[in-house]
Amino acid sequence: MQFSVLVMILLGVMAAAYHLGRRRSLASVGGRSGVRNLHSLPAYYGFYTALWAGLPALLVAGLWVFFEGSLITSMVVQSLPASLRDVPPERLGLLVNDITNLANGNIVSTQVDAGMQRAADHMNELRTIGRVALAAVALSIALAAGSLAWRAIGPKMRARNRVERIVSGLLIGSSLIAILTTVGIVLSVLFESFRFFQKIPVTDFLFGLEWSPQVALRADQVGASGAFGSVPLFAGTLLISFIALLVAVPIGLMAAIYLADYASPRLRSYAKPVLEVLAGVPTVVYGFFAALTLAPAIRGAGEAMGMTVSSESALAAGLVMGVMIIPFVSSLSDDVINAVPQSLRDAAYALGATRSETIRQVVLPAALPGIMGGVLLAASRAIGETMIVVMAAGLSANLTANPLESVTTVTVQIVTLLVGDQEFDSAKTLAAFALGLLLFIVTLGLNIVALHIVRKYREQYE
User: Which one in 34, 110, 210, 409 has a CA-CA gap of 20 to 30 Å to 371?
Assistant: First the structure.
């Protein structure tokens, strides 16, 4: 049984348990006429039964799905002949990968022999047995827990309090999952970055001016000495992000001011959704537009003026990225400007200020914290963009401030380093984690600075 089918069945069991629990609560007081004798509303008894019928079974199913792959792989490895099992970890990993691909019906990297085929068949048998056992165990748990909860229903039972405690526990668990996920991401990046810095000095990574992560696999190999200076990557990231913000912040802010204080309600009802459509356009579409339309136009205009322009330039990527993040600035700024109390505007008008003076001297200062939040969100979106940079700015790690040359960004290099099957023992692959850690620190620093600015100005208008 597929996991999705099992989940649908468990949801059906929960729905049935809800109705049964609700009916039993009413029956315990002689029908609807005796509802006042119940401690809680009948719906709470139904929710209590449904939660007990579904949550334990869903928890068991989730744990099985999480550990299924490692358990089955371990059992398959133990069943392999000693000649195949007692090999170096690298070869054993490749063999397990081929067995998994063969069991899934995918292409394998080596010749399929009888031993590998038996292992793949054994893996499929274990998967089938596991699915059947999971379905039986989950349904048994659902029926047993639901029955116990159904039997416990009575007029004096505090169903509402119990349901609220269960829901509170679910909310706390969800919060812990989010927190633990963040902590796990940070720790994994820190661990892999520490392994990278054991191979490459920190000073070379932070202050190096050349990026060429090609590591020699053999002692006699040439042209792959490896250079891991991150300065060109961050210079390219800042250059493209700066160009994007030069486009997005003025246009987005002026659009927000016009829609909030100048546009008629009818024009606003049409213009605001049209402007927000830009946020829903896939980034690959922006990349195609930048690579096929804007970049050739910039190159042609530059050559007409006697300038040398690369076919892939930071200017093309930055301009298109700026158009892409306009809605992040305009929508948030528009909402913040509309949230400024009308009393501040009326007081400015009463003192003789014009509409433009009111916006410039009253509305914008009062809305500055929210506007800064929108600009920060747009900056984060620009720093993390990958597809537009790949298609319009290229992959060359050039240390330059000229927007007409080809550059690359940190996120593009992270993707490039982790594409395909990689061995996480080389400095080339581990460099992606070091870049991610440094980008995380830089972004955190920007957030702290922006938060300081927001708090500073917010105190003046509270």
Answer: 409
